[in-house]
Write a structure and sequence with these properties.
The chain has two domains: about 5-165, 2-Layer Sandwich (Mago nashi protein), CATH 3.30.1560; about 170-320, Immunoglobulin-like (Sandwich). The protein has six helices and 18 strands. It has helices at about 5-10, 25-30, 90-100, 145, 150-155, 160-165; strands at about 15-20, 35-50, 50-60, 65-70, 85-90, 120-130, 130-140, 165-180, 185-190, 200, 210-220, 235-240, 255, 260-265, 280-285, 300-305, 305-310, 315. Strand 8 (about 165-180) and strand 9 form a beta hairpin. It is globular and about 70 Å long.
């Protein structure tokens, strides 16, 4: 699924909305952009400290002219998609379109949720304007009701791509190849792609369990056959990070400045290569729970939590 497709799926299933009453005496025209809109999705099990496996929040502040998007995992697990916080100013036209859609009473048309299933995302809608207050709770399985939100979805699909072009405190993970005699290694690279410093869990101090691990995985690339859909990739080989030297004390968190990167080598890949075979390699970083309640003051920058995958690196037979 493309990034745009993943965002479209996300926006259909995540919204919470707050529009405060108009302020001052500027009149209706001046108060049209005096609102806050947030759009939230929670899906999957809660992994740590109140954070679900898939959780994203979109916030639009009309008065400030700012939109913010925070995601902890790609909705479609897209390779190379960063996580963290993204923020950008929006054109006044976008705010006007959003407010106009909301003023049609689009949320009033929604009925009660069907409840969904374990795999459904939780959807919470709320609307306040003047003395009016509306709150709706749906699940991503309420397809008929979510279809009614098409006009709202169209507006939001024009906002999110802009935000991904403006990372504020965001993390990308890369993978690099290191050729060595007798085998190969790779590097898992953490990169601060935003304009602010970030903090992130030290990959070497993670517990090596789902939600708290860092590794590089390898799959044999299936042969391409015209007209035939290839089978799902089988990531059969996992390379852990190179172990820490005895007696070395590793910090639990890292601080990365904007544009800075920190690389970690993996164990050596000792493999028997099938003649003519191509391989695919990607890095995986997962850290949800590095926020102990006893240490809130220890975080001096935005703490990135969640799961992120690198772009896939191709190891072609012709390159070996």
């Amino acid at each position: 699924m493309t990034r745009a497709g993943g965002l479209r799926a996300l926006l259909v299933c995540c919204c919470a909305l707050l529009l405060p009453p108009s302020l001052g005496s500027a009149g209706k025209r001046g108060s049209m952009n005096d609102f806050v809109f947030t759009c939230r999705s929670r899906g999957g099990p809660e992994i740590a400290d109140g954070l679900a496996e898939r959780e994203s929040i979109l916030r639009v502040e009309g008065r400030r002219g700012i939109a913010t998007y925070e995601q902890h995992r790609s909705e479609s697990d897209s390779n190379g998609e960063p996580i963290g916080r993204f923020e950008a100013p929006l054109d006044p036209t976008a705010f006007g379109r959003l407010r106009s859609v909301l003023d049609t009473g689009i949320l009033d048309q929604l009925g009660p949720t069907s409840g969904g299933s374990f795999s459904s995302s939780l959807i919470t809608y709320g609307f306040e304007a003047g003395g009016k207050h509306v709150q709706k709770v749906l699940s991503s399985g309420d397809h008929d009701q979510l279809t009614r939100l098409g006009p709202l979805e169209d507006v939001l699909n024009g906002i999110l791509p802009v935000l991904f072009q403006h990372p504020r405190a965001a993390l990308r993970v890369d993978v690099r190849r290191i050729a060595e005699t007798g085998g190969e290694r790779f590097e898992l690279v953490l990169v601060d792609i935003g304009t602010e410093a970030i903090e992130v869990a030290n990959p070497r101090t993670l517990t090596d369990h789902p939600g708290s691990r860092a590794f590089v995985e390898i799959a044999a690339a299936p042969p391409e056959k015209p007209g035939v859909t290839p089978p799902p990739l089988r990531w059969a080989t996992t390379l852990r990070l190179e172990p820490v030297s005895a007696g070395t004390q590793e910090p639990r968190r890292l601080r990365l400045a904007p544009g800075a990167a920190q690389a970690y080598r993996t164990e050596t890949w000792h493999h028997t290569v099938t003649p003519g075979a191509d391989y695919l390699v990607r890095a995986v970083f997962e850290s949800y729970g590095d926020t102990p309640a006893a240490e809130p003051a220890a975080v001096s920058a935005y703490l990135v939590r969640g799961a992120v995958r690198s772009e896939v690196l191709e190891l072609l037979a012709s390159d070996r």
